[in-house]
């Protein structure tokens, strides 16, 4: 997919057409300057992704189906990121190439603790999938007693190998993000430290002026 920057032109280029950008996958990094702003982790991810694709914010807003003003309101705290709509969360999911659940957690609509029930669901899905593999006439005999009684992580690996080998999907893809809660917690720790560092720097400057 190519993204069009309707405002930018190539300087010194005889071609008066709009500049084209090739959409590249988001690196997963955050814009450090945005982390401490009201938009928090979600806007830090969106803006870093836009920068990596050489997109201006108005072009990013177009991709997300919102106005440039809406993005600014999220960045400045006029609109709360934790109250973004499901439609906008889905658009962010497509833009960044990550699950909508991750978007909701970056926005603060979900907490890592909310995934506790999903972890239980993951264990249930692994057990069910292993039972299916054991009953498979071609592959079932390869499941040793050690694998049948192995850890959840070992059985999860067996399930993923079976899916890759057969092309069958045994588990809900949304349940594959078992470490999502821990990763979001790490991101929020970064955000907290960034805000504290900025506050400390501001206090030092104020004391030096006094």
Task: Characterize the structure shown.
The chain has about 210 residues and is mainly α. The chain has 2 domains: about 1-110, 434 Repressor (Amino-terminal Domain) (Orthogonal Bundle), CATH 1.10.260.40; about 115-175, no CATH class. Helices cover about 55% and strands about 5% of the residues. Strands 1-2 form a two-stranded antiparallel sheet. The N and C termini lie far apart (about 55 Å).
Write a short abstract of this structure:
This protein is mainly alpha-helical. The chain is built from ten helices and two strands.
Specify the number of helices. Answer: 10
Radius of gyration: 23 Å
CATH class of the largest domain: Mainly Alpha
Derived from helix and strand composition plus strand pairing, the structural class reads mainly alpha
Summarize the biggest pleated sheet: 2 strands, antiparallel
Mean pLDDT over the residues: 76
Please provide the count of β strands.
2
Name of the CATH architecture of the largest domain: Orthogonal Bundle
Q: Which regions are unreliable across 5 or more consecutive residues at pLDDT < 50?
A: 1-22
The CATH topology of the largest domain is 434 Repressor (Amino-terminal Domain)
Helix content range: 55-70%
Shape: elongated
